[in-house]
Write a sequence for this structure.
């Protein structure tokens, strides 16, 4: 019988034995049961023998590098959480690995011991939130489980096989609704472009964002559900505002991996509309068909369903294998500075964009307040923020 059956098991993988020794010292008195491997092959043997909860791997290793190892772990042990701890920092490869959900996050060497321990704590706390028994029971009992759309799976496979942009765009152009959505997003104020072809649009938005656009367009494409069009407009506008905040207020380019986060942040609302029609209808009646009184709506969701749309959205995106920062925006855009959040910047921006979007779309109904702590976190003077946003809202109101 194992001595620490209740302890979380962590596997560290690094070809440098000195690094493994350093990690042993850091985690010697921790609450985790730790394993160490100096190669990908040894790591796979340990994974086969023990129920590992989390693997933390270096990238540059002989024979099997970290990305290859995590790809095998993702395929063969999908329940194992994956992180990278490395001095390797080729941005394109890191973004690609995050986009393919090979890892939750990327930590740089040399590491800070407290930061490393803190990240691991947050990752496990997030897992505990997702593993809500009522939520698991609900998804397990659904007669028609929400599934990833076929076109998403097909395009994902084409991207994994490094198919050309021409072939991918040819496939997408078979779906008129999807083609229009991609062109619309590529031509939004965030991208500042005038794009006329799907191929050109894909090159601008990037493959990670393309997948998220496909997914969001598919899940929002339900003509029979009340308020779905409003929610889709809200998702599009939230995404647009997030790009504006990065470009015009934070004065930097939004990271590619995050630039479609606004599209999926309210995915839990879509699930409730589709799978809890009676409860959703009752909530609409109680809220006088007000879609944006969010604090009260969340209260009703918990009372009528047993959990709220943010937890549903996080669970579903996690189950679908969506990149971790996108999952966090779905889970925490109403509570962006929650201690569990790793990617606080993008979650804080989506928090702002979500509320501002409703203020534009439903100006007489919005009752939610912005968490003013995010201004300090993002280092934005509040008056400067609202001055810029007023300019945006005036222009956008003319387009609604």
């Amino acid at each position: 019988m194992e001595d620490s059956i209740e302890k979380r098991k962590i596997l560290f993988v690094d070809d440098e034995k000195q690094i493994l020794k350093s990690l042993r010292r850091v985690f010697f008195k921790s609450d985790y049961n730790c394993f160490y491997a100096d190669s990908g092959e040894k790591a796979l043997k340990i994974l086969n023998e023990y129920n590992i909860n989390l693997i933390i791997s270096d990238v540059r290793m002989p024979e099997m590098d970290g990305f290859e190892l995590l790809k095998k772990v993702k395929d063969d042990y999908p329940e194992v959480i994956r992180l990278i701890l490395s001095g390797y920092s080729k941005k394109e490869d890191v973004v690609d690995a995050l986009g393919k959900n090979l890892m939750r996050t990327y930590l740089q060497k040399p590491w800070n011991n407290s930061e490393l321990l803190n990240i691991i704590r947050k990752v496990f706390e997030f897992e505990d939130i997702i593993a809500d028994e009522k939520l698991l029971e609900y998804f397990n009992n659904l007669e028609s489980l929400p599934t990833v759309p076929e076109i998403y799976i097909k395009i994902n496979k084409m991207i994994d096989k490094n198919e050309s942009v021409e072939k991918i765009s040819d496939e997408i152009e078979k779906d008129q609704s999807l083609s229009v959505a991609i062109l619309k997003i590529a031509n939004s104020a965030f991208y500042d472009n005038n794009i006329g072809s799907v191929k050109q649009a894909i090159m601008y938005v990037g493959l990670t964002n393309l997948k998220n656009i496909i997914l969001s367009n598919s899940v929002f494409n339900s003509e029979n559900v009340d308020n779905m069009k409003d929610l889709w407009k809200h998702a599009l506008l939230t995404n647009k505002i997030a790009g504006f905040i990065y470009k015009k207020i934070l004065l930097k380019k939004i990271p590619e991996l995050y630039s479609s986060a606004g599209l999926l942040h309210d995915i839990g609302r879509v699930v409730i509309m589709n799978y809890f029609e009676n409860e959703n209808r009752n909530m609409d009646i109680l809220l006088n068909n007000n879609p944006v009184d969010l604090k009260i709506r969340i209260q009703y969701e918990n009372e009528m369903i047993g959990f709220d749309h943010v937890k549903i959205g996080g669970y579903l995106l996690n189950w679908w294998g969506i990149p971790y920062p996108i999952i966090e925006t779905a889970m925490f855009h109403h509570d962006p500075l929650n201690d569990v959040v790793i990617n606080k910047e993008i979650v804080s921006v989506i928090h702002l964009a979500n509320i501002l979007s409703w203020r534009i779309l439903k100006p007489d109904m919005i009752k939610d307040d912005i968490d003013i702590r995010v201004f300090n976190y993002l280092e934005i003077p509040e008056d400067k923020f609202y001055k810029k946003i007023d300019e945006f809202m005036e222009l956008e109101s003319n387009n609604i």
